[in-house]
Amino acid sequence: MNENATSNMNARIRVATKRDRDDIRDVHLQAFPAAEAEQIADLSVRLLTEASDPQTLNLIAVCHGKVAGHVAFSPVFSNIDKQWTGYILAPLAVRPEYHKAGIGSQLVENGMERLSEQGVNMLFVYGDPKFYQRFGFSAEAAAGFLPPYALQYPFGWQAIVLHAAPTEGHTVQLSCVASLRDPGLW
Ligand SMILES: CC(C)(COP(=O)(O)OP(=O)(O)OC[C@H]1O[C@@H](n2cnc3c(N)ncnc32)[C@H](O)[C@@H]1OP(=O)(O)O)[C@@H](O)C(=O)NCCC(=O)NCCS
């Protein structure tokens, strides 16, 4: 698949359901290195049934009838402003045989569009800046928002503003949904 992949494969992006559970788990098992694959696969399954308010969004990319990728967006909460709405993108994975065909980007962009339409103020991510900067994520936007747990790789903490809200002068402590309440994930 990699050899034939052009820069953009048209995957169908849709909201995942409980019936996609095993496919989603398998995407993460295949995509992540063995040392972390089980942990992230388990996380992806927990997020699929996360009972959060606002809702956790799970998207899958379907190519030729096969689940090729998955991303989850779960809400994060500010200790200061209850009106402010934030989400975090995690985890994201695409089956290795579908890499570099634009599917990861489609999942991220589709989720950003949906969250923006909902009026979400900010989207966070904890990942490789080289990948996420192409979507507009930056460390600058995340400065002033403390992640729920101490980070092993602080340079990976980034955000994008979808709808600006006044936060000047405040340091915001974020909390997260139950599935992400594990210091080992951060
Ligand atoms: C990261 C991942 C989801 C990208 O999926 P994808 O469908 O290949 O992504 P796209 O085709 O939309 O984009 C591919 C581009 O991202 C780049 N890229 C992928 N992973 C990257 C990384 N960790 N750091 C920097 N760039 C990365 C590729 O080199 C490629 O660049 P190009 O467009 O200049 O050629 C996929 O590589 C994956 O599942 N990786 C393992 C799981 C993982 O690491 N997830 C967390 C992401 S931080």
Q: Which fold name fills CATH's third level, the topology?
A: Aminopeptidase
What is the class in the CATH system?
A: Alpha Beta
**Judging by the overall fold, what is the CATH architecture?**
3-Layer(aba) Sandwich
CA gyration radius, whole angstroms:
16 Å
Q: Tell me, what's the shape?
A: globular
Strand fraction: 25-35%
How would you characterize the largest beta sheet?
8 strands, mixed
Give the full name of the CATH homologous superfamily: Gcn5-related N-acetyltransferase (GNAT)
Order of helices and strands: EHHEEEHEHHEEE
Report on this model:
This protein has 186 residues and is α+β, with helices and mostly antiparallel strands. It is 26% helix and 27% strand. Strand 2 and strand 3 form a beta hairpin. It is globular and about 50 Å long. The longest helix has 15 residues. The N terminus is likely disordered. It contains five helices and eight strands. The protein has a single domain, classed as Gcn5-related N-acetyltransferase (GNAT) (Aminopeptidase). Strands 1, 2, 3, 4, 5, 6, 7 and 8 form an eight-stranded mixed sheet that branches. Helix 1 runs antiparallel to helix 2. Coenzyme A binds next to strand 4, helix 3 and helix 4.
